Amino acid sequence: MFDRKTKLTRLIQFGVEVSQIADLDLLLEKVLTEARKMLNADAGSIYIKDGEMLRFSYAQNETMQKKLGPNKKLIYTTFSMPINNHSIAGFVANNGKTVNIPDAYKISSSLPFSFDSSYDKITGYTTTSMLTIPMKNNRGEIIGVIQLINAQDDQSQIVPFKDEDEPIVQHFALYAANAIERAQMTRTTIMRMISMAELRDPKETGPHVNRVAAYAVEIFEAYAKKKGLSQEDIDSKRDALRLAAMLHDVGKVAISDLILKKPGRFNDEEFEIMKSHTTRGAMLFKDARSEFDEFSAEVALNHHERWDGKGYPGFVDLETGKSLPGYEVSNGQPRGKKADEIPLFGRIVALADVYDALSCRRIYKEAWEEEKVLDLIKEEKGKHFDPEIVDVFLEILEVIHSISARYPDENSDH
């Protein structure tokens, strides 16, 4: 366990680290991980304020995680609850006060809130001590709630959370709230860019890009672990990758409505124009000043390349759209990139994008059955898709399905 001096040092480091994370989902993971470490909590969750509701947005549980085995992830479902005094999290958000409960099953009947034991009954987990903290920004507004569960002593015995830790955790929650608010602004800005594309192309929806981005991060993490990359190296890239993957088709804003919204098949000339959304998207990030810019250009340009070299745009000059010297094929067109010539993030997003596009209903098609989608992906292993990426994807299907449920399309059976 950390002593008080170590906790204060870690608090300062945390403030610096969270200021550098732009993506909301990855930030929530960081916040909860660090909060649990600081107070040696076995489990916890984060709720984000959404209007007059609290949305259960992220969860961790070390005891349940250990039962899953190596490289497996805890699956959780999202839900919302009203901000009122009936639930513990609702009370904390409603009143802006920290609540420290030594035993969740012995809450006084005189208190307005009660403990919902349904999760314990389903999982066999026993919740005992709970510390629930409001996350307030610099203006004192509630952004959400952190709930920590089952503090442990040095012998891993469950103990109450210490009253003396509450001021430190409240400072922690302030850093978290401000970081979450910044990440929400970043997410909103990106979603506005996506909305521009959605106005043009009905395939580009907010839930679609969120799913593709979340799939891409999970595929990358599992792939990187297989390749022996350290968690530190993986974490340093996940944030920029997730934002970049959301913008994989941003170049479509430059394509004419006559082509984007054409109901039938493209003729050769139209298809060439459509293919240019890759180079146009990459051009938006041409003068890269960050990893986000670099990854965004890489993904936009390469997510339609194929492992067998039959994709597009190939080795092309972004400015002219013409083949790079020495990479022309017989008709003067640029040669497609193949195998490891395709940057990793392009290969990952290619699979994530196709899986989601086939799995979801659109105005022009019905959703495919999962078995049919997976059969196609297996069939395209070594043709359209990197074989190793396919293997990793199939190994983490349970996580993929949980992401799909977290970002459903409106009025969809996805």
Write up what this structure looks like.
By secondary structure, this protein is an alpha+beta fold. It has two domains: 4-182, GAF domain (Beta-Lactamase, 2-Layer Sandwich), CATH 3.30.450.40; 201-406, Hypothetical protein af1432 (Orthogonal Bundle), CATH 1.10.3210.10. The chain is built from 16 helices and seven strands. Strands 1, 2, 3, 4, 5, 6 and 7 form a seven-stranded antiparallel sheet that branches. Strand 1 and strand 2 form a beta hairpin. It is elongated. The relative contact order is 0.09. The model has no long low-confidence stretch (mean pLDDT 90).
CATH superfamily of the largest domain: Hypothetical protein af1432
Tell me roughly what share of residues is in helical segments. Answer: 40-55%
Number of domains: 2
Secondary-structure element series: HHEEHEHEHEEEHHHHHHHHHHH
Could you tell me the number of beta strands? 7
Write a concise synopsis of the structure shown.
This protein is of the alpha+beta class. It has helices at 4-18, 24-39, 62-68, 88-95, 118-123, 166-200, 206-226, 231-246, 257-260, 268-275, 277-283, 291-302, 344-359, 370-379, 387-395, 397-406, and strands spanning 41-50, 53-61, 80-82, 99-101, 130-136, 142-152, 158-159. 48% of the residues lie in helices and 11% in strands.
